[in-house]
Amino acid sequence: MAKRDPETDPRAFLGDELRRARLAAGFSSQDALAAKLGFDRTVITKAETGDRPPTPEVLAAWCQECNLDAELYRRFAKLARSSDGPIPPWFEDWLEAEREAVMLRYWQPIIVPGLFQTAEYARALFVAAGKDADQADELVTARLERQAILDRSDPPQVVTVLDESVLHRLIGSPQIMAEQLAHLAERATLPHASVQVLTADNGANAGLSGGFALASCDGAPDVLSMNGVEDVTDETRSLVRKATNIFVRVQADSLPRAASLKLISEAAEQWKTR
How much is the mean pLDDT over the chain? Predict the structure, then answer.
């Protein structure tokens, strides 16, 4: 990949300024600042090269430690995160982790995760979020391209836990739901994929605060993607540990793989009669 030009690339400009600030504050290495802030060195590296602007949490800590104007740098970061394409820059780091992962874990209490979505299900979600037809088509194409990792020769292990409500929430139309759940059931039979359902009769569970995904890569820290108003990609060790603990709890409360597959298939049949 060509080096970013700080004269023309807002992300590279921000990275250059953050590097200067780090050195001026006496942190001669990225490792030193990472240790002080409590983040992995790769977070610092990617921010300084412009590959990924720092998250608001990282930027706030950086500004405080290096005596920077937090409001000014927040504006720099907002500009750096602007995107010309269908994939926003803040999501690029997750996509990289997803491609390189040896294991992916998804907890989703609301919708089917992107790796298992059909085109029409994904399109219904994007349209509901306010995208026009052209934008939705671009985003659907990008989402389907991500799914290629499931069919490559060295796929990651994918472990997914869904809340049962995902099977019964109408997205698009009954036909779209029937096709989506049939597709999910088919994908769940892959030897490197498993889908488990946390049934409604469990009541309250550890994951009700929201969905997330964890990517585990060889020789690199786990990466966390959290769902919200905008998805947030983070490598903060404490957050990754908290998400991992939540995943262990919701998976422990879920139906086994075979029973989950049966429930998904039954829900698909029910949508056909709606």
Answer: 90
Phi/psi of residue 170, each to 5°?
-70, 115
Residue 220 corresponds to which amino acid? A
75 and 124 in a common domain: no
**Domain finish residue from 46, 80, 114:** 80
- Which pTM was predicted? 0.71
- Here the CATH number for the domain that contains residue 47 is 1.10.260.40
Rounded to the nearest 5 degrees, what angle is found at the Cα of 176, between the Cα atoms of 174 and 182? 100
Segment 80-121, tens digit of pLDDT: 876 445 566 667 778 888 988 999 999 999 999 999 999 999
Number of Cβ atoms within 10 Å of the Cβ of 51: 18
For the chain, how far is it from start to end, CA to CA, in angstroms?
A: 50
Beta-bridge partners for 225: 213, 233
Spatial separation of the C-alpha atoms in residues 85 and 224, rounded to whole Å: 23
Q: How many other CB atoms sit within 10 Å of the CB of residue 188?
A: 20
C-alpha span between 117 and 114 (Å, rounded): 5
Report whether 155 contacts 98 (CB < 8 A).
Answer: no
Residue 45: which domain range? Answer: 10-80
Domains held by the chain: number? 2
Spacing of C-alpha 93 from chain mean position: 9
pLDDT at 154: 93
**Same-domain status, 75 and 125:** no
Cβ within 8 Å of residue 245, ≥6 positions away: 206
User: In a 10 Å sphere around its CB, with 0-12 CB exposed, 13-18 middle and 19+ buried, how is residue 132 labelled?
Assistant: exposed
